[in-house]
Amino acid sequence: MPICPRLEIDLGKIKHNTKVLVDKLKEENIEIAGVTKVFCALPKVAGVLVEGGVKYLADSRIENLIKLKDIEVEKWLLRLPMQSQVAEVVKYADISLNSELETIKRLSDEALKVNKIHGIILMIDLGDLREGIWQDKAVEIAEEVIKLNGVKLIGVGTNLTCYGGVIPSKDNLGKLVEIAEKIERSFNIELEIISGGNSSSLDLLERRQMPEKINNLRLGESILLGRETAYGNSIKDTYQDAFQLVAEIVELKEKPSVPIGEIGMDAFGNKPVFEDKGIRKRAILAVGRQDVNPESIIPVDEKISIFGASSDHLIIDVTDSKKDYNVGDEVRFNLEYGSLLGLATSEYIYKKIL
């Protein structure tokens, strides 16, 4: 029998999605850094991104970049480098995103030790309030970076939507371009990269409002799940089901839809609320919250609904399904970003590459 629970990964669909976005952005002179973190940088999947045309591979964790060391493209560290890892950053990342001058100085020192030049993209905070130098300090910090011998200032970038939910706009990305141009004029240099954010910037591109000098986007969810992330819309001509969770039924019984007795806290400290739907045919699947957030998985069988989950069990309602489910049968789910992240990270989920 097939191994369950498992995450099925369709390389053909991922490659298709990659090519669609690479071709689309090439028309706007925008290159892609393919983000590998949500699938924990499985090399076979990362290789498909490269085959599909991404120029760079990017990840938030050194452990994942180490997995990609044999793929011959430039690699970015997306999360701000830890000073305790500067040696690993210089060894495994060609470029890193930075906002702290002291860390950049340490990267420079380390790069000089090993006779390398490490690429620096200065992150600018445009209001989302995650990482980044405040706008009025950007030129000052850039000047200090340019003085260092072990690093090269190759660009500026920003992050939007991930923390504060700020939507990319012509105005805020226009400010990023203005800062880049000011740095170029001040020091008579040409920046290679102006990175205008992540998959949330694709809606702006679709509306033809992307500032012209933006020449890079860091894309993960849009490639892997076929969705832009500003409003969650599907991207034309892409697949949304390149990744699926497959779980096995371990119990199937008719039971009431409301627990019997006084309701206290569940295993996660929450007091659950139940809707009385009478007696329902309930299936228990061998996967739980330790692996995945049940609120961000979507049953492929549209007649199935999810009751809830404990650490190790997912409880679903199959009463209205046209399929006659039995113990041992498999149930499939499409995924949102958070559920894919959890499943890829969980050591209890078998990864099957198709």
UniProtKB/TrEMBL annotation:
Cofactors, names only: pyridoxal 5'-phosphate
InterPro entries listed in its UniProt record: Ala_racemase, Ala_racemase_N, PLP-binding_barrel
Boundaries of every Alanine racemase N-terminal domain copy: 9-222
KW tRNA processing (keyword) present: no
Keyword terms of this UniProt record: Isomerase, Pyridoxal phosphate
Record-level GO cellular component terms: cytosol
SUPFAM superfamilies: PLP-binding barrel (SSF51419)
Phosphoprotein found in the keyword field: no
Superkingdom as given in the UniProt entry: Bacteria
Molecular-function GO terms, alphabetical: alanine racemase activity; pyridoxal phosphate binding
Record PANTHER family: ALANINE RACEMASE, LYSINE RACEMASE
UniProt protein name: Predicted amino acid racemase
